[in-house]
Specification:
Layout lengths: L1 E5 L6 H16 L7 E6 L4 E2 L5 E2 L3 E2 L8 E4 L5 H4 L3 H7 L7 E5 L2 H7 L7 E2 L6 H4 L5 E2 L4 E4 L2 E4 L4 H13 L2 H11 L4
Parallel strand pairs: 1-2, 1-6, 2-5, 6-7, 7-11, 8-9
Antiparallel strand pairs: 3-4, 10-11
Amino acid sequence: MKIAFIVYPRITWLDMIGVFDPITRLRLYKYLPDLSWNICALEQEVSDDFGLTVRPNQVGGSLAEYDAIIVPGGWGTRTLIEDEKFIAWLQTASPESWKISICTGSLLLGKAGFLAGKKATTHFDEYGTLKPFCGEVLEQRVVRDGNVVTAGAVSSSIDLGLYLCRTWASDEADIMIRYKMDYKG
């Protein structure tokens, strides 16, 4: 399995790291030994609102080769939702791939058309913004509808990561990784 973690200016890093940590442990603990990932962006460097900067290892290019794209939230989603180049880039993801978001990352998945007719969630302050992009907004921490999985506000990113461990590997993987993280949620 190959994952694209999508990053962009004004991201909320906890959205990204909360899901990244449990998922990458699937390879560490050999539940998915062939798991690979890239940090993908359209810029050479990406910073949050506080100046924490990350250099992606994949800049631009098609997302079609990935089995999953994961789109974290952040204040940057409010401007990217109108950025035709960014949305077109997301749309290069394969129709069969997993489309996953945390917090307001769902707004970007929605704008790209991936949530049409589907159940989804987002940050509780943005339920109204998400509504035109999906079939139904659910006030839940993690929502799955087919190959689309969305998570609520920032702390739900860890719940999402563990949900994906269980879905992609096993209940045993979820239990072991939860234990190693000392996560009781």
